[in-house]
């Protein structure tokens, strides 16, 4: 699989077996306002998967060649890659949460009724952040402007602007439909004990068991056939001294992929 904006120097597998899932990394972290380092996450997650005893569930396209410091150009490159390659279900490894815009925009062009489920401690619904429209703190607002329905789990830190916007446009999880669905997982959804490898972690988070229970509930409603893809974002290996959060990311990737088979 070749594309001008794909780097295949650190893939899980060199060959393609037409597996159900295709992994793509987007190692972008230029809008991070704390300690950057999320760009290291896609390859670190791959390394951790290799150390786990699991069946091969994926093919691996490699990483999008990002444009450091330029979110818009990076997202356009990611969109270009998705438009040119074939896959059944997509797994995107971030990178910061900004990267979610590219797969959601791609899937929205394919599925008008696309709904997006967001596991996150934050809404990321600011209209702008220090004058920037595409930022990890604004990206879900840009995604909502694409015309998708947003459903959140785990939010516990937000400002007045975000709360007001969310009250108008965010739907309760009970309104989920049996329709095309994309899931985005910001690892700061989890409790600090599991999310030490996140720059913007928040206390009073959730356990891995909580997460799996929520995933099972979601799949009961939407049907696994309707889940078009998911991403895992905001892992910063520079902060993950113990490796707990990286291991968590790998376990999430493995477990959801098994459930969606």
Structure description:
This protein has helices spanning 41-50, 71-84, 101-110, 139-144, 160-169, 208-222, 244-260; strands at 6-7, 21-26, 58-64, 89-94, 115-119, 149-153, 170-171, 181-186, 227-233. By secondary structure, the chain is α/β, with parallel strands linked by helices. α2 (71-84) packs across α3 (101-110). The longest helix is centred in the last third of the chain and has 17 residues, at 244-260. The mean pLDDT is 96.
Quickly give the CATH architecture: 3-Layer(aba) Sandwich
Order of helices and strands: EEHEHEHEHEHEEHEH
Strand content: 15-25%
Mean pLDDT over the residues:
96
The CATH homologous superfamily is termed Ureohydrolase domain
Distance separating the two termini: 23 Å
Shape: globular
CATH class: Alpha Beta
Helix content: 25-40%
How many H/I helical runs?
Answer: 7
CATH topology: Arginase, Chain A
Strand tally = 9
Radius of gyration: 17 Å
Poorly predicted residue ranges? none
Given helix and strand content, the structural type is alpha/beta
Largest sheet: 9 strands, mixed
| Tally of discrete structural domains | 1
Question: Layout of SSEs?
Answer:
Elements: E1 6-7, E2 21-26, H1 41-50, E3 58-64, H2 71-84, E4 89-94, H3 101-110, E5 115-119, H4 139-144, E6 149-153, H5 160-169, E7 170-171, E8 181-186, H6 208-222, E9 227-233, H7 244-260
Parallel strand pairs: 2-3, 2-4, 4-9, 5-6, 5-8, 6-7, 8-9
Antiparallel strand pairs: 1-3
Helix pairs in contact: 1-7, 2-3
